[in-house]
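Backbone shapes recur. Consider a single case.
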Amino acid sequence: MHVTPVLSQAFPARIKAVESLVQAIPTRGGHPDDLRRAADELDKTGLLYGRASTGAAYSAFAQLVRIAALLVEWRAGVLGAVPDADRFLRAAKENYRLWVQEYADSSSIGGLKRAGAHIDNVTTFEDVGPVCQALAITPLPLGVFAHEFAGLRIPTTDFDDDETREEPQELAIAFLRFVIDGVPAVETHFLTPGEMHDLELEVRVSRWPDSATELQLSPVSIEPKSTYDFPVFRFYRPRGEPPYTMQQRGRAILNSPQSLNARPFEFRYTASFAPQAAEQPVAVVGQRTLRIEGFDLVRAPVTGYRGIDQKLVEIRNTLRRQSLITAKDLESLLIVLTSLGKLAGRALQDALFDDACGEAQFQVAIRDELRRDPLIAAELEEHPHAGGGITDLSFRGLRIELKFEASNNLSLQDCQRFSGQTASYVVATGKRVGVLCVLDNSAKRSAPYPAEGGIGVLPVHSGENQINVVAVLLQGNLARPSDLSRRSRAG
């Protein structure tokens, strides 16, 4: 028997979860993605424990943290007037109903059951904070050392004496890993809709009930069943001595693509033994929740330029983690960036800004480009006042500042000098994100860089606050390829 310390691995995940919940207690605090990442870390912590009761406590807590993420997302949607925000509340309550059913017979998580009961009482956005607070202050067992018996860790805990007196006959299913198309599933994985993908699952079973003939692992989701087809994994009684580690591969498909603004699909695998008369339920620990992105940048491109589309997805994911950026503002931003991204690609492909022009002409060109987009059109304002100044353009309160450079070649980082003015307009409007569009119309003596290289987030810090200025740098006055060839020969 060997003793292995696990406190340094388990404690940070617990602290991260508590901190994320505490940040979500204020009405406009917290962010659902922070809570989901904390839940993922809790799932990994559950795998440190061989005892079902200790690991199950962390797994149960992780699921409640994910439900809290849905509630925080619902609260932000209500305050931001997001269409159909109530779907997040419905999803939270349905997930909680499944949680209650799964842990109905578990006696080791009484504190979590009492804290989770607040979820049923949520009716207004003001009820979300108390739920997060109740979860944050709920104690959990904390294993300090783990004894290893034939590869199975059984932790000792100095938190709950009852935990150490339980009989070592607990039954646990540990989700060790998911592999999608040969690649380990990350925090959020991408699947192309309409195509078959390999989904491989590896699990560990602490023991096998005498009356059970089959272990079934089934997907559960709040998404309509018609939108996906994920496999049910079936394992038959293995040979040898426990614990058993088993692998199986199936086929997964998403039938419906998502829009750029949609949240990822979420799937959770549940475990049960067959026949139903066999020992039930089982404690499930580890990563059993899959978050899947389901938009297809090839079949359903956003701008028509693959590199720019990938950059927009990257920006979207970055800004989603900013708690003060509402879903409504992010939606408006992506609409504007989609239109400007198309222009950036065409400016490079067709040399649109070939001749030098002035800032006034540039503003007319951008205004006309945005107005052609039916999602923008009449909602685009020109020269609205903000912060004692006059902004160039504005869409649903999202400030769009335009700059023109005719002397020096610019890179994306060079645009940082313009970001302060944009940020001042953004702050004066009570938002946390704005757009800066710059035309580099200086004479070029080298080949251009990819259009997506001129698109990115330029953070502007004011004390402890951060304003996110998304810059789109357009390349104009391009050198002709034949001229570059002549210069090369001359050199």
